[in-house]
Structures are given as structure tokens and as C-alpha cells.
Amino acid sequence: MSTRIFVVSDSHRLNAGLSTALWKEAGKFDYVIHLGDTEGAEREIRKEIDRIDPLIGFVSVRGNCDDDPSVPYFRTAEYGGIRLFLAHGHRYIGRVPGGPFDALASAAHEEGCRAALFGHTHQPLFEEAWNGVILINPGSISLPRQEDRRHGYGILTITETQDLLWEQKYLED
Questions:
Q1: Sign (positive/negative) of CA torsion 99, 110, 125, 161?
Q2: Which CATH class is domain 3-170?
Q3: Buried-exposed string 2-11: b where 16+ CB fall within 10 A, e elsewhere
């Protein structure tokens, strides 16, 4: 059976768009991952997820605009037999010579992860890094910065054969 994960980042306590996206995709995911900058809204997000289905799993990581020390800056998690590196990204992006995501890809690889999910840039991204790690950024659900300024999130599907399928989604679609 496939595992489907709703992935979002950078809501910045502006949760109306996140709520709309969650309800738009209701019934299409098993887990929710928030990649930071909730600005302390984790409880409100969990409550909204519970309104859809209290059995949906929820994890988040701390972003540069978050201050709850109980939320980690990064975590690894396994879904559908695939290990994922979850981080906001501000501690990794542009931190070493080379590509802007080299430190992030290296950290994910060192943790034995096949993909690194991150936020911070407010711009969607799906690409393979130099070391084979898949880099995934859903963009920002509240404050997008890419040229078209669409409010982004995504659905990550891990198939029975452990393939990773990314669907970039936008509120405006």
C-alpha cells in the first residue's frame, strides 16, 4: 500500500491557506509534515488535522521564526520504508562552497536518508542533489516568493516499490 504525506512549510501563523489546503486534500494523505516557521501554531494545526481525521500523523521541525525548544531543528523519519530528512533549511542552505543545497544534501546522506524535505526559501523545488539525495521544498503556503507567487504545498507518495512521487500543489489550482 502506498504512503501519502501532505508536506507544507512557512505558514507563519497565517493558517487560513493551510486549512484550505488540508480540506482540499482531505482523504488523500496519511501524514502531515510541517517544515517550520509555524510561529508557534503547531497546536492549532494539530487541531485542524484532528477535525479531518485524528488518526493522521503530524510532525514538524523548528524554523528560524520559531522559538519552541521542544521542536527539533531537524529530524529523520521513516515512511513506507523510506528514510526522510526533515529540516526547515536555514541551518544548511548556502553553508558550504558549491551549490546552495550541498550542506542539506550532505546532512541527509549522512543520516541515511533518501530525500531531504525543507522550507525556508518560500520557493518550490524538486531536484536530485549531487549525491543522489532528492531535495523537496513545497514552497510557502502563506508567503510565496517564486515569480508566480502561488501558495504552495505538496503530496509525497511513497509507492509499494519505494519510489518517491512528488505532486507540487497550489491553493490557486
A1: positive
A2: alpha beta
A3: ebbbbbbbbb
The sign of the torsion formed by the CA atoms of 168, 149, 86, 107 equals positive
**Where do the structural domains in the chain lie, given as residue ranges?**
3-170
What is the 8-class DSSP label of residue 38? -
- Comparing C-alpha atoms, which of 145, 148, 156 is closest to residue 172? 148
Q: At what angle do helices 42-52 and 16-24 cross, to 10 degrees?
A: 30
Cell, residue 140: 510557502
Torsion sign, CA atoms 125, 134, 138, 96: negative
125 - beta bridge partners?
Answer: 137
Q: Residue 98: pLDDT above 80?
A: no
122-152 pLDDT, tens digit each: 999 999 999 999 999 999 999 999 999 999 9
Q: How far apart are CA 141 and CA 60, in angstroms?
A: 15
How many other C-beta atoms are found inside a 10 Å radius of the C-beta of residue 130? 12
